[in-house]
Amino acid sequence: MDKHQPNPEQQKIINHINGAILVLAPVGTGKTFVLSERVARAIKNGIPIEKILCLTFTNRAAKEMSERLWRMHPEEFRQITIKTFHGLCAQMLRIEAINIGLPTDFVIYDDSDCKEIIKEVFGYQKNQDIQRTFFDIAKYKSQACTEELSFLYPTENIYQPLGLNFAKKAIRYQSILQERHAIDFADLVFFVRAMLNCKPEISQRWQERFDFVQIDEIQDTHICEYEIVRHLASRTRNLATIGDLDQTIYEWRGSEPDLVIQQFTEDFQPKKYSLTFNYRATQTLLNAASSFANSFEQRQTQITPASSCKPGKLIKTHFAENEQTEAIWIGEQIQNLAANNQRFPYNRVAILTRTHKRIEIISKVLEQLNIPCITIEQYQFFMRQEVKDTLAYLKLILNPFDTGSFRRILLRPTRGIGARTIQNVITEGEKCGFYLTDMGSIQTFVDGDPFSNLISAYKSGIIVVFDVETTGLSVTNDEVIEIAALKLVNGKVEAEFHQHILNTISVGDSQHIHGYTDKELAEKGRPANQVFSEFFDFAQNAFLIGHNVGFDIKMVTAHASKAGITIPKFQWGDTWNLANRFIDLDSYSLENLAKKLGLPNLPTHKALDDTRTTVELLGYLIPKIESKSDYRQALVYRYGEEFESLAEQIETWRDDTQKLRPADLLEKLLTESGLQAYYETDPQRENNLLELINIFRQKDKPEINSDTALRSILEFTALAKNLDQISQQDNQVMIITIHQSKGLEFDSIFIAGASQEEFPSFLSLRNDNLEEEKRLFYVAMTRAKQQLFISGFLEDSRGYSKVPSEFIDSIPDKYLQLE
Ligand SMILES: Nc1ncnc2c1ncn2[C@@H]1O[C@H](COP(=O)(O)OP(=O)(O)OP(=O)(O)O)[C@@H](O)[C@H]1O
What we know:
By secondary structure, this protein is an alpha/beta fold. The chain contains 36 helices and 22 strands. It has 5 domains: about 160 residues, Rossmann fold (3-Layer(aba) Sandwich), CATH 3.40.50; about 70 residues; about 190 residues, Rossmann fold, CATH 3.40.50.300; about 120 residues, PCRA, domain 4 (Orthogonal Bundle), CATH 1.10.486; about 180 residues, CATH 3.30.420.10. It is globular. The site of adenosine-5'-triphosphate has 18 residues, from α2.
């Protein structure tokens, strides 16, 4: 538990557990502290732990809150959902993927993966263009209005304002993601909004999910994110929002705090609270920050130092001749702070900048002065070439459709496969439903066509089409409760298998999906081992097919092995993927396909009915697949040889995911792929790979099966922001942008580059729009607990004269110590 006791104002908020509340309070007044305490109180008041949701702005904040709550409730804290917005959306979509036509094994593409696609589709070379386009695509997805939301992939009309040409390319970008079973960060929010909007039963299920919801940093929450929270809290109306309007720093990215707060007030009529006393800083720093905030056009809060705040030192201010000497001055000040202290906590010092360029200059100088420091750019752990190369192998192993990762692994170590071959496979493949990633699958080399086994099984062999229902989505904990299957012999349905399994864990909320109660299953269910062994007998030697069955196969495998049944090796296919290749449609949910293709049987979400629809869909697809077989064989004949040995390796590693823990698989893969040998000449890169193995070991959850654990580690690497990864235990000065410093506190803060046209920025001056810049400066000032330093330069690297930031004029001289 935190050492301090809540003050009376804080206590009132902590005690207010039922009903909506809005807390708008100044910086450093304990908002984060109050949020953690409220959860503890809610648990005490009997709110079920698993019904609590806390949304934070950064992964770091989520981690901090988890740690606080862990100290308070070590036993139960794991059941509390503490997530960032994107983390929550990812979880919701994983649960609902099958119901909204997303591939159940979807992966989340990080910014750099997405930018690679943008580069290709839009043909841009300059980072600036790529970045702007990436930003625009995300912006228009988040602005999509209710009518434009559907659980189809975003359509052309949402990009209309940017012109038809842009819209077409944006759709191409989207379809590449779709082919790769991938979604980007903006899709996470888009699809969640869409499903809550268009699917009443899903929407209702999520209304039931949480009884108590809190959201931090409301001022930087986008209205479309608020809509999701509103929905989640609409049943109990126990929604707490908390924030500080004076710390709004993301309006440039589309946050509209006034609108969100107005909407929240209209929707929930919350009780309003504030907090008065700042505990973070010294009186001098707080008075200085408060005077500075008087320069805001509309100041929202007042700062009052708590009685425990010490008077504190003046703000040291320095304007150096140039950018280099400014950095040297900062270095010297840190050396002074650290003088005579062998164990000086460098990690309690941060240098905050407005630009990335400033970070680069300062970090170089500090390194020369032997001051331990770290920048996010240097840190970019998951962005480093060797780390990305390694992750690409793992991503492809888990997601056979990840063309981006496949292309990457062809680069290093070199395999003699040239860019032209790759391009030819892609271009020629587009005409016959062949993906580049098919060259990484051993099936392709059996008969020169990845679908030859499927076609021959359909025409003169056995196919089993199946569907399962489960008690939930956890491959480790949940159980299969129903298996329905139809056996096709020579393309005709010859036999049916339909069994229910006696469940050992309750169906819980999943009842809403399949309609079975525990009582019903107790009556008609049979022991799992019997049902699985009968099912495998039924499916013996057959080619297994299902619609969007990535998840179903995992469930069957996990549950059957728990029931002591040995699982035979099957070949399997997925009609979601086949439809995606051979039919041009906006959504590949079974429902949409059945409607658009006019299939006689519409799916009902009953396993046997859905299986019938899948059989019809397969019948529709086979002639289309077969008609292009010759093209594919010719393509494989021409280019396949170079890929074959790699495909064999990939197949082995795919098998290994079932047997080896993620870190062990990673070690094996590094050796067998040749990556380790490739990087061993560079000790830094080699070390990073060791560090990656380390992270895999730490993040492993031995209680879950190995491939699910691997999937969850890869999801962590996609959602992790670099800032979250910098270990606070590493004793280094952090050099970060002010945006990255949000919510953090340090003993000593340096605000660097405080020269006119850098801070405030040139653009803000040109557009005469200084308000957000001022708030940014204010956020920077208020990160300091004990000491603040402000510095700038009087000549920039191109020789232009500069003057000190006009922001300094808004801090009274009595708080400044000018050097
Ligand atoms: N009642 C209290 N007594 C003493 N210290 C407190 C009290 N409440 C909070 N603090 C301390 O004040 C500091 C600021 O608290 P916290 O980070 O929760 O504030 P915040 O309002 O979330 O800040 P920001 O707006 O900058 O994100 C922390 O160091 C916290 O431990």
